[in-house]
């Protein structure tokens, strides 16, 4: 790749703003929280050794070799069931115990040992990931004044390292210099904040010339800075070098786990190492807790933790990352409006979903689109635009071809993108500050306005000449760049074309561009606004494009004022520059608007719709800006048209005014009060609309969230958030994501699930009850810290609504089915009861049973022909609410199963006793003894439990048949084999079956009658309940099995109606409370 070495980007306005200037924060150096001292290039300094800072070794495991056994045992015996069996095992060693110690202790040791082994394997996988990270190689500057390779874990605070292109930073570094002359570098922070666009970092001017090993010999400054903390977006420090002090800012800091991109190399000083780095400060301690396949990536779903299956069916709230989780990490130019004409025939997934919800037929544009080859030619990243009216040079035939030319010229020139030409292929690619900007430049190139060269003072394009039809080179002299910011919401450049005209080219949000248009410049405003509204409804990101011609004298006067403002070093410098820039960005002529799609992963809107049907709340926690997050919220159906937005932000004039003054205490107090007032106002809005069918969406930015999570405000924030249908937290740090997840988990006490794909999501995944990692493009950090791994967000509906629902029902049935008998059996009967005679059918039920099919679990709605209120629809995802409301684990249901167990025990015990005691059993007239009675009673238990399991199963497979009837057969095989052993071993079971039970007709008759009597109460209850008091899944089963209204009784119809109304009322009360 070739690069323009003479280009000094630090001379542009965007980089001038990066230069550090005086701040009150730097007066805190040396005080509490700002006491770190770094001896650069001199880590062996005695003073540095005394400081004893942490090394660069990191560990994300739950256990160590020393604490594995005690810590794991502690976890195992936090479970009440294990404590019970431990007590029983201890008692079995006493002479009073009715059973031998091995018969109780051995099964417990097997279960505990297997669980500990599983935990150990899972933790070893994390250990291997840590080993790989700690042993990565990096070049460090040594005593012989050259760079040599060492491992990441060997780095020390103060070391100077060299990081090359596409390598990760091994620690938090201070940027000294780079391969660029003015010390800039491009950094990808995807693993930290989820953003895909490259960040631009700038070294101090005093160090930017240190670009070789020789120049570093005498470079031994001292850095005094803030102590380790989790804030990714701030840094306070001072560099002491050659007797001068140089304030440091976040623009000079390169964070661990971010990657160097499009820069050959950088030199940096290690500031924070290991667990002191900001990414590790954002991590939380790992919690000790206990059919989906993506063809494109060849990645199946994986369950990495096996003890959370039932919780998959009880999820109340989903906490989701955005970039890479909901989206594909790519921006695409899909539509545009130029001179009041809408261009772009590609329908986005969101538009198709919108039309399906409205029930509209295909539009005229859709019909034309259906006849076009959608994927003709090679796919171009960032460009998904199809329209034969302006592609392939056809724009010259349009009515407003001159406006089209100016429109794409603005896209090609109004940016800070850097073109790079590949020497082998000749293709040009672009280094852009954001994916949006890259998409604009690529779109201009594809239409015929190719940016191919940029220097410090000029921009060169290859343009299509509408007269000759040939490509010509046009050079624009670059005079000023008025950079985009969240407050300005626009970007402008001032250029001089080859005809010596001065032009201001501008792009920005519709709210700021519209108010800056001249009267003549509003020619296409009405139509453009109509198209912008249409694009916004489709979830697309819109930007208005405008320009104006400048006079020489006008520009000369303005340029003098602007240069003076740039040279100012006072606190209000940026505000002054914005004010002067605003004077020039007036009287604009509107050319049109662009529509960019932050492309969603396939199936995301449909997945979110189904999860909403299941009444699962979804929160999006993202590092993106508010505007970006809101647009994606609409695109993925998280925010919907007609939903009222409650926006909590500190981007307010009064707060900005205090920030300019620099009074931190005043800023904090005012911010706290502002957030509190906004929370109260939002709650009052929600309360006043409770009687109306209005949905609310809460959007809060990162600054406000920091105050909302304060102990004094977190309860108010949670109350408001839980009253809203959707919540979006913007500019969230990884630690804030974890804190919000903890608040939602502990506040309502409901099950939370977190889903993400990057290292910045690890804390959130570990804090939630269930962590789901997406094995996407950001590496495997999230997957390694998750409980379940999937390849795409859309598989979440299968994981929860199908497998979660099934698992919840299966485990509920397993818990109730696994009752045990208490008669005086042979001790090995008891030991093998839960291991061989009844466990396999329970496991089969827990693995294979389905109350309804996967298709019905996901079916959004269907007409209910047998319910007399025909306007109703049956929303099958509501099945999931059986888990969220914990219907199957409710106290009435638990007590019911306990009563069933007690009743079954009574029937088996007394029916067997009364049928066999004092009855002649053997040929010689001997009556039933202790061994025969125990074997007969235990036979009834094995039959009753397995047959009741068969009655509980909704979906039979051959495996379940094999396990149920095989377990019964195994009981008889055990009696034969165990009874043939020496009486010293088999004791009361010696030859009991072969010689006594099998030949006796009484044994078989008693078994048959007792088992039928035991099953009759449960069978009768289920028959009554499914007909007259059906649960939600019973309703679907009845409808599917009986089908038509004529076949269903009035009593059944009434019961169904009562149950549906009861379920909906429960949901309403839960949402109100």
Quick take:
The chain is of the alpha+beta class and 1073 residues long.
Give structural notes.
Its EC number is 7.6.2.1. It catalyses: ATP + H2O + phospholipidSide 1 = ADP + phosphate + phospholipidSide 2. The protein is of the alpha+beta class and 1073 residues long. It has a nine-stranded mixed beta sheet, sandwiched between helices. Helix 10 crosses helix 11, helix 16 runs parallel beside helix 25 and helix 30 runs antiparallel to helix 35. The radius of gyration is 35 Å and the shape is elongated. The N terminus is likely disordered.
Q: Strand order within the widest sheet?
A: 16-35-34-33-17-29-32-31-30
Mean pLDDT: 79
Report the total helices.
Answer: 37
Cα-atom radius of gyration? 35 Å
Helix content: 40-55%
Total strands: 37
Could you outline the blueprint of secondary structure elements for this entry?
Layout lengths: L12 H4 L19 E4 L6 H6 L16 H9 L3 H12 L9 H34 L2 E5 L5 E5 L8 E5 L7 E7 L5 E5 L1 H4 L4 E5 L19 E4 L11 E5 L2 E5 L4 E2 L4 E3 L3 E8 L5 H4 L11 E2 L4 E2 L1 E2 L11 E6 L6 E12 L2 E3 L5 H10 L5 H7 L30 H13 L4 E4 L6 E4 L3 H13 L1 E6 L3 E7 L6 E12 L7 E7 L5 E7 L1 H5 L10 H13 L3 E10 L1 H15 L6 H12 L4 E12 L3 H10 L3 E5 L4 H10 L8 E5 L4 H9 L2 H25 L7 E5 L1 H7 L5 H10 L2 E4 L4 H13 L4 E6 L5 H6 L2 E5 L6 H4 L3 E3 L4 H23 L9 H11 L1 H10 L5 H5 L3 E2 L9 E2 L6 H4 L6 H26 L13 H23 L5 H22 L3 H4 L5 H6 L3 H28 L3 H11 L7 H23 L1
